[in-house]
Amino acid sequence: MGPALGLVAVLVVVGFTLSNSGSRLAAVGIAVTGFCSIVFIAAYRVRLAHEVGTASIARWRWPSLGVTVALVVAGVFVPQAIAVDSPPHEESSPAGPIIVGSSDDGAASYLAADKTVVIGINGNLPGWSLESNGTYSGFDVDLANFLKQKYGFTLRFKKLTQQERQKQWDGVTKDPADLVISAFSITEDRRAAFGMAGPYYIDMSTMLISGPKPEEVNGKSYGCAVPGTTGYTAMVNLKTRKEREFRTPLVIDESQIDLAGCLAKFFAIDDDTAFIFSDWSIIRASKPEVSIVRYEDKSPLLDIGPASSSSSTERYGIAFRPGHPQLCRDLTKAIDEFIAGGGASAWTKAYNANLKDRSVLNTDDWHHPKVTEERFCGLPGPGGSD
């Protein structure tokens, strides 16, 4: 039995050193069939030895080896055949969209003149994108129309909540938008799920208080945030801090599905909601006549100004389906055209028409990107070359 056992051991080792699943499956087949056949033949030889003596079974040595080899061969080819007929095994990968190659035709195909391009916008944010009697206006709308004029496509708007815009290309959403232009900050997490090009606008986000309202009502503070957003995370952190340091409960309204709902409560005089965390330009444009106070220093704000320890820089970008690196580069160049030209730029015209008169100051031109960042079209986001 020594030769048979040695043969089985060698084949099993060789099978497992190969990287393909068929070879590994064959190795398992070899091990099982080889072991079983050896045990069976060994038991049979013991029985013969008991009945007819040791000398008479010597002639069984080579036949037993032949039977073992035949079973081992079966153990090799049957699993291989199964592996061929079965769907290929896919290695596990991080959650997210499937990334295609970098051979897309870019804007020439994605935004072709003979196509109807669906662009997702909020539709409820004054100064950014607001629908009135079927007509849309705002800074994001002007950027969408700039792209329409550049590429010649037919434009159709689609209203999206904050949560909906992040799920457009999750493989589940029906009739997804082709682009999303909705004061949408570029983040690494988002770039891991879909492509983003930009920035086309720079802003800051921070915790704000409605000036006309008291910070506390009957020993409690009230805030509003949309679950799943960065504002919600910041609001939960504030809740923990206030309740730990000041023993003041913070009640967070989590029922809203879009920032517009939180803004309505934040600015309503008869509502106790006094706290909100979001981008300055969005909040300021919503109610330009209402005083807004920064939570950290309790000072009324006319302009949030440069970044501080209590605020974070937001870079707004255009989002699109994953797997289109050339489209990302094309959109980056188009945004460069939009922001170029200083006071005569399309960017400045959009700002003057939609934000300037809504008390969104642009001190030292800090909202205006000097240039886009093509690094957003590279790793690690699927809009890049990966």
TrEMBL record:
The family database entries (SMART domains) matched by this protein are listed as:
PBPb
Q: Spell out the Pfam families in the cross-references.
A: SBP_bac_3
Membrane spanning residue stretches: 25-44, 65-84
Domain of life, per lineage: Bacteria
Which residue ranges does the record assign to the Solute-binding protein family 3/N-terminal domain? 116-355
User: Which keywords has UniProt assigned to this entry?
Assistant: Membrane, Signal, Transmembrane, Transmembrane helix
Q: Output this protein's name.
A: ABC-type amino acid transport substrate-binding protein
Native source species = Actinokineospora cianjurensis
